[in-house]
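Reminder: ligand-aware prediction takes two inputs, not one.
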Amino acid sequence: MQGIIIYKGKYGATQQYAAWLSAALNIPAVTGGGETKDQLEDADYIIMGTSVYIGKLQLRDWVKKNKGLLAGKKLFLYLVAGTPATEKEKLKGYITAGIGADISNKCTCFFLPGKLEFRKLSWMDKCLLTIGAKLAKGRGESISVTDYNDVKAERLSELIASVRKLSEVSV
Ligand SMILES: Cc1cc2nc3c(=O)[nH]c(=O)nc-3n(C[C@H](O)[C@H](O)[C@H](O)COP(=O)(O)O)c2cc1C
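Here is what comes back for the chain with flavin mononucleotide:
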């Protein structure tokens, strides 16, 4: 079975997960938009990786553009976020709002923790995060502006097992 990882992030967390997945599954990892038409068409399954910024999925536009092709594939999606993986409804909400119920219902989804290095953010992202955290506080929620790094290879074990199972079934 042929697979491909298509990902989009901003500061390296989504890319790091893509690189680990690529090594574990021996399939290419390409940033969204950098793939060839043949790579997409030939894939039996696609693993989409995206981070989230102010509720918006980085890979959203790519998914919308390629909806037609995605409809015929086995789809996996991993979402990299600051929101804890235990807050499943909120995380699922990001996906449904971002790519629509038709595609998101077809995806097997995995929620992976991200990382934050405040000093490495763009000026705009520093502002957005600071304002977002203040607004969240007003709603009784919490968004961290303190550095964290929960990106670890072992977070991918479920996703890797799920993909391997698919390959075994279809042999
Ligand atoms: C400006 C900004 C906005 C963010 N907005 C959200 C958000 O709405 N929800 C969330 O769960 N995480 C949010 N995060 C956390 C990121 O998703 C997290 O840092 C992730 O690791 C980024 O991955 P990347 O480096 O691959 O883009 C935000 C981070 C920044 C800097």
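The pocket of flavin mononucleotide is lined by residues 9-14, 51-55, 80-83, 114-116, 121, 125, 128-129, 132 (CB under 6 Å). The first helix runs from residue 13 to 25. We will return to this case in the review session.
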